[in-house]
């Protein structure tokens, strides 16, 4: 693959007026340079926002169907470049190629879904006190939307924010994570030229500068953010202080509960997928497994055996199940948390020292005898690490599952409908799954969390309309 040089995009074109160049290396080998991106200045962010503002009147006045047609074209172009984008994402952030392909296909599906929104009905007709009055609601775009994204879904997350924003008539300035700048730029370079200039803009660079400048810009009407809780809190403060709409999707500490009557094989397979795919770097990754007494011994033995077999390796090898972590910082953080688990007295059943490979590889790790107050039971790890906790019965399991500050996704494995319903009712999670892994919620369904996982508005599916539009209530009284 040739070295990619990525710029910001303003008004439908590459903008080469940025500042320093940042070299991008692959997490599979930190000595392997794969490209570079040019950091934007605050002045460049300002120009991107102005370009989006200028493009707004014509874009929002366009018929939703014609906006949808352009999004269909974007989907087709992305589909043609699926393999290239998947390989770039795998190389840039370490996601195994099979998963990266799936993510690229999802990006296409998201664009098609929101293209279809252009021809779906919106609004309500509401009875009025006066029989001759027509009262109804319409949805109007919010305006210029700032989109700030993390590195862990470098294809899907930028698209699941930008696609609905554009479909509903907004214009966009996107600020992707530093660690996925090349992938984001390649996607924008394919899509932005299909749209009127200024409708979709990209600014590359550091969060604390470029992201902060975008969040604070007085001409940005809404900010949609996915990332860590600390940054989310800062964004909420800045955006609300200037009266801008904002949306936050943040961390998770997602539990799986395995009931005594669970299908053992299914529970093990889905727990492993949920915990270990993307090397655990998913906000919806399974991080805790809470197991009831009668199945405990068999479940833990089967889980351990399954995890021991996982292929750790190069993200571009077809056979790899667990690739490297995205960065040195992420590697150090996960290693520190694994160490804290050992220090606190949890029993490591699989795991141990990283392989002597060049990249940021952490071996898939299973802890048993995890206690609820341990750091590994409370903090988001964002690595291939899962902890097993023991519960007396289903109510105790639900209480343990709820005993964290997050509430993103949660699963139960059971064949008993009463246990399933009890779990669905009692669990504090925005996404509840029965006999399914905690990750993998589909794009056409609402996505988001409770508690500190989210600002409670929902992304994806039709739910996205609530953030990316405002409601206008109209009453028309016939004259005469
Ligand atoms: P991060 O918070 O460090 O960065 C996210 C984005 O915010 C990046 O683009 C970054 O440059 C930008 N940013 C950083 N500081 C900023 C500031 N002061 N102002 C404005 N923007 C700023 O998160 P990350 O390390 O990229 O991603 C990992 C985190 O994302 C994890 O905590 C994970 O749980 C979370 N995540 C959540 C979801 C979800 O939907 N709930 C999905 C994926 C990832």
Unreliable residue runs: none
- CATH homologous group name of the largest domain: Aldehyde Dehydrogenase, Chain A, domain 1
Neighbour order of strands in the largest sheet:
15-16-17-14-13-19-20
Q: Approximately what portion of the residues adopt beta-strand conformation?
A: 15-25%
The chain-level mean pLDDT equals 97
Biggest beta sheet attributes: 7 strands, mixed
Silhouette: globular
Polypeptide structure, described:
There is one protein chain. The protein is an alpha/beta fold. Helices cover about 40% and strands about 20% of the residues. It folds into two domains: about 270 residues, Aldehyde Dehydrogenase, Chain A, domain 1 (3-Layer(aba) Sandwich); about 190 residues, Aldehyde Dehydrogenase, Chain A, domain 2. Helix 12 links the parallel strand 16 and strand 17. The site of nicotinamide-adenine-dinucleotide has 30 residues, from helix 7 and helix 8.
